[in-house]
């Protein structure tokens, strides 16, 4: 463990900063680099702030262990390219963000040509996990992974570490994890929508808390839903527009290429997009086509709605 007592962290935002704080509390020597600099909390906790890549390199003992926690995309690419020029053979570069697994495989191969080890590390648990114990899904060559494994296990919750497979496996596993997350979010959201639309007023706050005590669907997501519902006093003041970074779109595309059907995950992505269309243009287009082929009316129509009430399948009560 002594040889792993000093680490570098590139990116000191919500994830990287909180992971650094956790590492400092557990006795690691942590050197950090961020273009915006280190926060006062990090400096007070003992983080050594580096102003350049070169300073970070010079501060770390060889072989160096460097964690990258920045948003996926061009920033990661720029950091990896600089790492290839600055760091030495034998050093380990670990990308803990949500990079696409195909990019991680390419970066692994590029760094390997220079003798630098690359590990892709999907990280789950959010900011709270980074601060108090995360869930790590790791991809990489066994020898390199074995050297960082004690660190990752010490920064994870019990059982929250897995060496998922060879290079790129960690980020692919995290991508699948995120797709499952989208499906679960959508299912919970639809369930709460049903509760809201029940014929009588329900104790939704109490129901959500009840579900998290012994039910099959108990989960952290249900807990978060209950907490937010209470904090916001329901849904009246909550906008329906849901943003996301678009990363699960990669998974939908991968599934198409792999010819693996993922209808629930794919539909959950579509529903996110639908949430942003305030005027529901897609619905207007559907209405236009229905009017065109069947002369169906535009907008609400009580006569047609009365038919719909009697055409539902199942034992739904008719006395609404």
Q: Key terms for this structure?
A:
elongated; alpha/beta; phosphogluconate dehydrogenase (decarboxylating) activity; 6-PGluconate_DH-like_C_sf; gluconate utilization; 320 residues; Rossmann fold; 14 helices; eight-stranded mixed sheet
Spell out the blueprint of helices and strands.
Elements: E1 6-10, H1 14-25, E2 29-33, H2 40-45, E3 48-50, H3 53-59, E4 65-68, H4 74-86, E5 92-95, H5 101-112, E6 117-124, H6 126-132, E7 134-139, H7 142-154, E8 156-165, H8 169-196, H9 204-211, H10 220-232, H11 247-258, H12 263-275, H13 281-294, H14 302-308
Parallel strand pairs: 1-2, 1-4, 2-3, 4-5, 5-6, 7-8
Antiparallel strand pairs: 6-7
Keywords: Gluconate utilization, Oxidoreductase
Pathway: Carbohydrate degradation; pentose phosphate pathway
Domain 6-phosphogluconate dehydrogenase C-terminal: 170-315
Describe the structure.
With 320 residues, the protein is of the alpha/beta class. Helices cover 52% and strands 14% of the residues.
Estimated share of beta-strand residues: 5-15%
- Under the CATH scheme, the architecture of the domain at 2-172 is 3-Layer(aba) Sandwich
The ordered H/E elements are: EHEHEHEHEHEHEHEHHHHHHH
CATH topology-level fold name of the domain at 2-172:
Rossmann fold
Ends apart, CA distance between termini:
67 Å
Summed over residues and divided by their number, the pLDDT gives a mean of 91
Our Rg estimate from Cα atoms comes to 24 Å
Strand order of the largest sheet: 3-2-1-4-5-6-7-8
| Overall geometric form | elongated
Low-confidence stretches at least 5 residues in length (pLDDT < 50)?
none
Quickly name the level 1 CATH class of the domain at 2-172: Alpha Beta
Q: Decide which structural class fits the backbone.
A: alpha/beta
Query: What is the total tally of β strands?
Result: 8
CATH superfamily of the domain at 2-172: NAD(P)-binding Rossmann-like Domain
Total of helices: 14
Characterize the biggest β-sheet: 8 strands, mixed
Give the proportion of residues in helices. Answer: 40-55%
């Amino acid at each position: 463990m002594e040889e792993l007592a000093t680490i570098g962290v590139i990116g000191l935002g919500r994830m990287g900063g909180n992971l650094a704080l956790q590492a400092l509390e557990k006795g690691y020597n942590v050197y950090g680099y961020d273009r915006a600099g280190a926060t006062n909390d990090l400096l007070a906790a003992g983080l050594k702030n580096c102003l350049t890549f070169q300073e970070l390199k010079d501060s770390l003992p060889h072989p160096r262990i460097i964690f990258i926690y920045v948003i996926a995309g061009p920033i990661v690419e720029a950091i990896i390219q600089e790492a290839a020029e600055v760091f030495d053979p034998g050093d380990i570069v670990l990308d803990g963000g949500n990079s696409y697994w195909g990019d991680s495989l390419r970066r692994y191969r590029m760094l390997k040509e220079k003798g630098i080890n690359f590990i892709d590390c999907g990280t789950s648990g959010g900011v709270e996990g980074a601060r108090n114990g995360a869930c790590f899904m790791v991809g990489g060559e066994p020898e390199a992974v074995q050297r960082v494994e004690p660190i990752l296990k010490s920064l994870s919750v019990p059982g929250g570490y897995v060496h998922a497979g060879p290079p790129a496996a960690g980020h692919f596993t995290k991508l699948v994890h995120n797709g499952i997350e989208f499906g679960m979010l959508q299912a919970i959201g639809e369930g709460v929508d049903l509760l809201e639309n029940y014929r009588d007023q329900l104790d939704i706050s109490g129901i959500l808390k009840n579900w998290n005590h012994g039910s099959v669907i108990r989960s952290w997501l249900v807990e978060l839903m209950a907490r937010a519902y209470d904090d916001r006093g329901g849904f009246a003041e909550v906008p329906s527009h849901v943003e996301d970074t678009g990363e699960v779109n990669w998974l939908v595309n991968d599934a198409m290429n792999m010819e693996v059907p993922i209808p629930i995950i794919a539909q959950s992505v579509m529903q996110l997009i639908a949430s942003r269309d305030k005027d529901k243009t897609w619905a207007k287009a559907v209405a236009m086509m229905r009017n065109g082929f069947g002369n169906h009316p535009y907008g609400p129509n009580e006569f047609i709605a009365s038919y719909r009430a009697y055409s539902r399948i199942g034992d739904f009560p008719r006395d609404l």
